[in-house]
Write a structure and sequence with these properties.
By secondary structure, the chain is of the alpha/beta class. It has 3 domains: 7-120, Gyrase A, domain 2, CATH 3.30.1360; 154-209 and 382-444, Up-down Bundle (Four Helix Bundle (Hemerythrin (Met), subunit A)); 217-370, Rossmann fold. The chain has 14 helices and 13 strands. The protein has helices spanning 29-36, 91-103, 113-120, 126-137, 141-151, 154-178, 189-207, 210-218, 232-240, 283-297, 354-370, 384-405, 410-428, 433-444; strands spanning 7-10, 19-25, 37-38, 50-56, 62-71, 82-88, 107-108, 220-226, 258-264, 267-273, 301-307, 325-331, 347-348. The strands form 2 sheets. The chain has a 7-stranded mixed sheet. A 6-stranded mixed sheet has the order 9-10-8-11-12-13, sandwiched between helices. Strand 1 (7-10) and strand 2 (19-25) form a beta hairpin. Helix 6 (154-178) packs antiparallel against helix 13 (410-428) and helix 7 packs antiparallel against helix 12 (384-405). The chain is flat and about 85 Å long. It starts with 6 loop residues before the first strand and ends with a helix. The relative contact order is 0.11. The model has no long low-confidence stretch (mean pLDDT 89). The structure holds guanosine-5'-triphosphate and magnesium ion. Guanosine-5'-triphosphate binds next to helix 9.
Amino acid sequence: MTQNSNIAAIASPPGVGAVALIRVSGPDAKAICAECFQGIPAVKWEARKQYYGKIIDREDQIVDDVLLTWFAAPNSFTGEDVVEIACHGGVLVTRDVLSTVLAAGADSAAPGEFSQRAFFHGKLDLTQAEAIMDLISAQSDLAVKAAREQLDGRLGTELGLIREKLITVLAHVEAHIDFPDEDIDPDTVDQLSSRLNEVIGMVSGLLATANQGRILREGLRTVICGAPNAGKSSLLNLLLGFDRAIVNPTAGTTRDTIEEVINLKGIPVRLIDTAGIHEGEGDVEREGIERSRVQLERAELVLFVIDSSASGEVAKRIDLPDGARVLRLLNKSDLPTHPDWEGEEGIEISCLTKDSADAIGEVLYQNLVESGAVNTASLTAINTRHQHCLRKAGEYLHNAAENLKAGESPEFVAMDLREALGAIGEVIGKTDVEEILGEIFSSFCIGK
Ligand SMILES: Nc1nc2c(ncn2[C@@H]2O[C@H](COP(=O)(O)OP(=O)(O)OP(=O)(O)O)[C@@H](O)[C@H]2O)c(=O)[nH]1
Ligand SMILES: [Mg+2]
């Protein structure tokens, strides 16, 4: 990103709609748009008001009728001067309006550049910028809510609190290094340790939300497996509510894996239909079965579908990965039960009835909530990047706590605390430790 450049892009999704939006941001956004806008002159524009006019190209041809809104810096999404042009939502007309704005002096924005500018101008911290993407790509109600909370700054605030506490500890430890003879507020090692442990607890608490974060962002990886013809694809279709996969009485119908996400009372569940597992015959079938096994290894939940009306010879030989959570579904309960499955544990379902979809949905949901995979009461949910930084921070904090207790020199302790602070700062994109330390030191009345 070059400072002082002006960027423009289509902000609405590709495709046809009633209206499309073109966004321009930068110090000259107003002048650039004024050059191609015929309507109220720019000197009369008031911030956040809409003006009707026409976009005119360099050959004085009318490109489109538009509504234009100007947001004066710093009160805009990016913190810069921003102009939004709402034009007709055709693919070509939108492209032409954008081309006209680019010809008037704007540069094409790179992906995410508007949010990046908002971050650089202090409008958003990094977790909030990421939340915008989470919000846009959310596939369930809870995922939307979690992204919304993060966008509102909940995670940033919590991390800010952790940083503050940690900086206070660091300031005390550093004071011992720099001014060993000064009369510092006598925080004992015990007090510092207990503060540090509090910080460690807060970091661990956030780390514990990583699993929920992954589920909300990507959907719980739920693999539907079983013997050929058990009704796996029928189950996928039933839970999705439409015929996504081919269902056929011929065994070995599904070859490749099929993935779809459902919204289960707000929780995104990624359903993966697989090829029936047995001693495969042809190359293609064997490849399909191999893929089923790969999916099983990566499953967070396995829906093991059993044709309870057929012999258990094949199904009972299927190896499920150790430790995987498995829901056994005794399918085809509308047909007489085969003696192999008499008294077998499992949930009786029939993919021919819609009622089964509700019953399976309910069991699945209870399973998710009871296992703690999703906590509907607290939607803080860190992502993989946050997890990586916080893990690093956690390790440094543990080292610092141990060195502190062992009576190691404060330099060692401070080194680890600084590393931990750096890692936490990385999550929100803040690394101004020196500045805050300065403030705290001044309150110590040291070296006046
Ligand atoms: N009676 C009855 N038939 C069912 C039920 N579920 C599925 N079937 C039938 O069983 C046959 C196999 O269903 P699929 O959903 O294709 O089974 P699958 O496990 O995906 O099979 P493969 O992809 O070949 O491994 C089809 O003829 C379905 O209509 C059920 O609950 N009751
Ligand atoms: Mg199938």
